[in-house]
Amino acid sequence: MDADLVQRLSADDATALEEAYRHYAPRCKGVAYRLLRDDVRSEDAVQEAFFALWRHRHGLVVRTGGISPWLYTVTRNAALGIMRAEARRAAREERAQEPDGVGRDPADEVAARAAAGAVRTALEGLPDEQRTVISQAYFGALTLAQIAQRTGAPLGTVKRRAQLGLAKLARALRPSIEQA
What is the CATH number of domain 105-180? Predict the structure, then answer.
């Protein structure tokens, strides 16, 4: 079934997208709902996943698992993107609600600046590949799959760079954490 769907999608057959949606959308929604705990936002993630399926229809390759693992991963990443966007928006709204300087403890601000400086210094000490992956993941809010796509590196390589970089950061920051 998946091979036929992929072939029809590659031929720009919109009915194949409809068929894929009918078949896979309920499970995709379950994947998104486990993360988002909200029907509307889960449906948004599913819509994003199927939009991505249509956008990438010419490059799809059917593996032994079919297109379902790809769809579930894209749905999960879309749900994570929604969560990140909401967290950023909530943080912006919170900052906008606070008058400048009111309610902020100067000691907390000094500690936050010191911690940020320690993180910057530790990041600068990483090899370029590891620093790039960690920076894009944490500051760019990208998934490792998105980083792999942007950098052209295999996903496994990106995962390993993230793992190594985080371990080095933990070791480098351990003394400053223990002092706090």
Answer: 1.10.10.10
Amino acid letter, residue 99: P
Token pair belonging to 165:
């970089």
* Predicted confidence band of residue 78 (pLDDT cuts 50, 70, 90): very high
Q: What are phi and psi of 137, to 5 degrees?
A: -70, -45
127-151, pLDDT tens digit by residue? 999 999 988 888 888 889 899 999 9
CB 27 within 8 A of CB 72: yes
- pTM across the whole model: 0.55
Long-range interactions of 6-9: CB distance < 8 A, separation 24+: 6/57, 6/60, 6/61, 6/62, 6/67, 9/53, 9/54, 9/57, 9/60
CATH code for the structural domain at 1-97: 1.10.1740.10
Q: Which DSSP helix (H) or strand (E) runs through 148?
A: helix 144-151
Give the separation between CA 163 and CA 180, rounded to whole angstroms: 25
